[in-house]
């Protein structure tokens, strides 16, 4: 069976970090075609009135001020690691927004908090936490602009060989569904059920969902699908 080619749709630096998690067999012929571009807003947050911040993405950490030892409540291990490296007193508060809200709900003693986030976000973490008694505001640090698939990516998708495509958010999955000229040979791996829903109705060769919404779980799911697809 022909070995699948890997199509990565995250920004170049994030794609490079993810590729390092994968076995060398998947590095050959990889195509990087970002579907989302991170554009800083240029509007620096005023943290003086807050006891800590919330990070739900490593992109937010990269566009935030230095932590200087201030508390940060983070979604997922990668965001937590990024916040620690940036000088925040960071702790992981769940693997996703739902588990974060459950963990922090009612903890008025932690606030007020400021959610440092991108323009496009799912749900209303600040509003949900405030409703439980933990006063939380939100500040937009960056915009996630949608990009078209490159000609190289479209050429890859239009071929007869399988193409392994990890998708890391519902928004990028929806953009892939809009952009892909052909998906019959796509082996998709979605980071969550919400991302998977964006691909419903597409003719896919295979589609798996990661066990957890983390980079490590995504790498494991990609490797498993790769190995399964290469079995005789």
Features:
alpha/beta, Rossmann fold, six-stranded mixed β-sheet, elongated
Q: If strands are numbered along the chain, what order do they take across the biggest sheet?
A: 3-8-7-4-5-6
Strands, total number: 11
Rounded to the nearest angstrom, the radius of gyration is: 19 Å
Low-confidence stretches: none
Task: Provide the helix percentage.
Answer: 25-40%
Q: Which series of helices and strands comes N to C? A: EHEEEHEHEHEHEHEHEHEH
Helical stretch tally: 9
Mean pLDDT, all residues: 94
Write the layout of secondary structure elements.
Layout: E1 5-8, H1 12-20, E2 31-32, E3 36-40, E4 52-55, H2 58-63, E5 71-74, H3 77-85, E6 89-92, H4 97-104, E7 113-118, H5 125-131, E8 136-146, H6 151-157, E9 163-167, H7 170-179, E10 186-190, H8 193-197, E11 206-209, H9 215-229
Parallel strand pairs: 1-2, 1-9, 4-5, 4-7, 5-6, 7-8, 9-10, 10-11
Antiparallel strand pairs: 3-8
Quick structural summary:
With 232 residues, this protein is of the alpha/beta class. The protein has helices at residues 12-20, 58-63, 77-85, 97-104, 125-131, 151-157, 170-179, 193-197, 215-229, and strands at residues 5-8, 31-32, 36-40, 52-55, 71-74, 89-92, 113-118, 136-146, 163-167, 186-190, 206-209.
